[in-house]
Write a structure and sequence with these properties.
The protein starts with a helix and ends with a helix. By secondary structure, it is mainly alpha-helical. 73% of the residues lie in helices and 4% in strands. It has one domain. It has a two-stranded antiparallel ribbon with strand order 1-2. A hairpin with a 2-residue loop joins β1 and β2. It contains eight helices and two strands; from the N terminus they run ααααββαααα.
Amino acid sequence: MFDQILSSSSFDILPNLFPLAAAYLLALPIGWNREKEERSAGLRTFPLVALASCGFVQAAQSMEGIDAQAMARVMEGIIAGMGFIGGGAILKLKNTVKGTATAASLWVTGAIGVAAGLGSYDVALVLCVVTVATLLILSPLKPDANEKSPDLADADDA
């Protein structure tokens, strides 16, 4: 049976390898940053999110006669799924909220996977570069919650 699948004309893995690899590789620097910062999602999560998003798009594209509306519904599902996964990365602790950058990064990583799956490698690359630059350049500019508001630090001790 496995031989039948491999010899079938509908089983052609080569055209799918480049978009999947591009999605995976472009998500690695984002995952590395989140891992290095010891965030809730990291080096394994981000490439898998991009890979899955790309895979959903590619699987939908392989369907006979898929139209733009059907593809839009697939992307809507991916967007909603990224929101759900990102929501799990956000934690509210007393007077602070943590994980919003990780959640946003997961959402962007889903978009990288979708862009790669659609063959828009320029969009995927720009999303990756801007996200990594944002995480690297702007992180030092963001003060800790305790530095930003001394009243919050006092409230935590009470």
